[in-house]
Amino acid sequence: MKPVRWGVLSTAGIGIKAMLPALRVAAGCDLRAIASRQQDRAEDVARQFGIEHAYGSYDDLLADPEIDAVYNPLPNHLHVPVTLQALKAGKHVLCEKPLAMTQAEARQVAEAALAAGRQVAEAFMVCHHPQWVRARELLREGRIGKTSAIQVLFSYSNTDPGNVRNRADIGGGGLYDIGCYAVRAGRWFFDSEPEAVCVVMDRDPAFGTDRLTTGAIRFPSGAHLGFTVATQSALTQQMTILGAGGNMLFDAPFNCPSDHAARLIIDDGSNLLGKDRQIEVLPPADQYRLQAEEFSRAIVSDEAPLNGPEDAIRNASAIEALMRAAASGQWEPVAT
């Protein structure tokens, strides 16, 4: 397979910490270019990662005819406009989540990708991790019976007023940043689309962003997803799936370290102390590398990628409904 030639838009932390190292070693990927609004910053990162081209603007990278695909980790409010710009320039786009903050914006991206004949995917790297893949296999096999509920707790502490996650005007806040993972988890493990949501939020009085959000999502089968996400609380990641014949617990369900052999714990519910629990130990995996490789294969094969535009539309619809519910204080339907 001819390698897909990649460029990365911005020197954002997620890129430096996760995606740039992944792209350097991912099969079928050739990391060629990095762009920043500051030329010297782009050059520094290019030297650090051995990247051939460093650009002082996003436009210059998008104009490079040797770049096939770009990774867009810009702040949330730039996901849609820059992705549209990249598609117009003939690039495939892997965009950080949330790809869009509304269903209408997500549909705009989907239509642009179709018109350009290019691939777009939302960067939910978790769907590529062996623990998520294996868990869904077990659920489909009926390992814990009919699933009825998923509980998610996801939190961290960030009170930096300059951080993009604490700026309401550019799409900051807990729901957009990490609540989207809970929504994706429900859709992934229930294998269906949500029909209605309710939510309560506590907003930071200075930032205006939601720092504590608890939501409930109802699915057509009657199953429920319950989640709490927080941006000014202790670092925590927990996820439990409940079924008629047992439950399933995850190790670091969202940011599992690449050198950690994740444990998928299956409990038949026969003992409150979990004496009969079974543990599947999964091989260590870099979910960012797996994501880059899968998207590159989709580009070469011209097949739909995981977490493609239609999936992004559905995730955006649920998040948009949650935002409406926060304002109305009532259950809100999820648009189809």
Q: Your description of this structure?
A:
Belongs to the Gfo/Idh/MocA family. Residues 133-247 form the GFO/IDH/MocA-like oxidoreductase domain. Residues 7-122 form the Gfo/Idh/MocA-like oxidoreductase N-terminal domain. Helix content is 35%, strand content 26%. The chain is an alpha/beta fold and 336 residues long. It has 2 domains: 4-125, NAD(P)-binding Rossmann-like Domain (Rossmann fold, 3-Layer(aba) Sandwich), CATH 3.40.50.720; 130-284, Dihydrodipicolinate Reductase, domain 2 (2-Layer Sandwich), CATH 3.30.360.10. Helix 5 packs antiparallel against helix 9. The protein is globular. 49% of the residues are buried. The model has no long low-confidence stretch (mean pLDDT 97).
